[in-house]
Amino acid sequence: MKTSLACVYAAALAAAASSPLALAVAPTKTFSAKILLDLRASAASTPCSLVQPVHETQIHRLIQTPLDIYEERVVRKNRVNVEELDVLPRDATDQIWVEIFGASPETVAAALAARCPAGIVQAEPLGSGAKEETTRGATPLLRRLADPAIRKLVDSGDPSNRIDVVFMGDGYTASEGSRLFDDMKRLTDDMFAGETFAQYLPLFNVWAVHQPSAQSGIGVGGRPKDTAFGLYRDGTELRGVYTSKPDEARRVCALIGPNACDFPSLIANDDYYGGLGGEFVIATRSPTTGTIVLRHEMGHNFGQVGEEYDGGGVYRGANSASSLASVSWKHWLTSGSVIREEKAALTYTKHMWYNLRNGPYRIRFTSTGEFKRWMGVFTISGADDDGAITITLDGKRLPWKSSGNRDRTFYTYENRTNGFSAGSHEIVVTGNGPFDGPIVQQLCSFDLNEYGDESTFAMNNPDAIGAYPTWDAGNRKLYRPNNERCLMRNMESTKFCVVCQENMWLKFFARVSPIDSVIVGAQNVATVKVIPLAQLRADNDPFKLKFPQLASQERYAVTWRKGGVEQPQFRDLFVADLSRATGGANGSWTVRVAFSTPSVRKDSKKLLTAERSFSIA
């Protein structure tokens, strides 16, 4: 149904804008709506697709006045399929999810009207009987769905003031429930008890969901199996995994409860590499690469950032700059205020997905001879034996040792003392079999970068922050903050660079407050309950155990003000006997909590600070 919203809410919006008093009051609620846009289509003639209508949602702390509007964009990566929207073209390229936040239904609706001048089409499945379709002879979908089994793996607090990750398993049959919950626990521990997200753990709840599938595993060759969320691979190669049932994934995630489906993730019951970002983070249970894919794709969605590796399609957000002048991380530069382009070249990049059964693969490239160092990264699947692969460079054999499994694996070669001579060079990759295993012996990709010496390209300090060039799929040069430490560039890494770490703190604190509640009890004793960070981290907190020095540098600063005047006797107290205040407890009070961490140097919106006001009569 096509709808025009501008006329309906224009009067309400004008009334809000004309009220100075209203603008001075910080909003206490947040509302949002989600639409799907095709950036190639004309906004004037193409209606938007409404995925989620205007509704109350978890507070967004960037909505600081009644007229504030904030948009979050996620690039669509999943394929269009039979459960998608009528108005969409079949090609999903250049489509984005846009969630619009505001302080009232009226402001969100007015923003929708401005975004969608051609109106809005309510999202509906394709075809009148889509939900009654059967999948490869199965019972009709609606009649065979049962309520899923849900477990809370990490319970840090009320979802209204936490970030909630929901792992929904796909391709796990009714008898595989134990395996599913074991897999989700392992992935959760890898992510949050390990180095990658440990510092943020008190901000998170993590849920696991078992919606039983009729068949075990996921589809290949573009054909999903009869599974809960219809995950499938395009072919047999270990790369993207797509969902054919996004509607069902949205429905099941909503069952977790209000404000509890912030980051939905679909986990395939599959032992090998694969995944996707976008509306859903998709990964597999793979013991070798499941976490590698999951933390990288979560990095995209948590931080609202694009790629850092070469040859990608989306470069945006806190970890990307189109020029030296637009670098946003200058407050993190290792060299101080001086910014330079680190001298490097992308000499070769290709995802060839070549079946080595068909013979050797030849990689030819030309070097200018001006670079002193180089690094090449292969990804290879189906090679679980040291004799499976032979690699030569200009006719000389390079050492190669298998990872010991058939999963897609990263193999890195580098030379930090001698660059390539000027001219043409050739790398030959030969597969030696066996070729009859379940996973194709395949050269998946190869990237080759050349670097200047240390005076022109900072490499010896792996944590150095500067302006490191990256080239997208169209050979456009952009800049990233770090060389190879950050897992948004190097998927084998287990940590983010400091720029990404800071960005995630800011993104998370845009949706949660350091303060959970303020309680005034008997005899006017007030308690401010906060998220257990800084000096309140538990003794068994993974971040505190693994990185005690960093954890010790976190701090909560607490101030209590009565009638606008600080009461210094209560400074840094989480429990205060307000009867000891100057003039007694009665009056208007404000408690302020400010969190600080060495991972955040710039918080222009004061997101790490929160206040609560109350009165005692």
Automatic annotation (TrEMBL):
The keyword Cytoplasm does not apply. Keywords: Signal. GO terms for molecular function: metallopeptidase activity. Gene3D superfamilies: Collagenase (Catalytic Domain). Residues 1-24 form the signal peptide. InterPro entries: MetalloPept_cat_dom_sf (IPR024079), Peptidase_M64_IgA (IPR019026). This is IgA peptidase M64-domain-containing protein. It comes from Pythium insidiosum (Pythiosis disease agent).
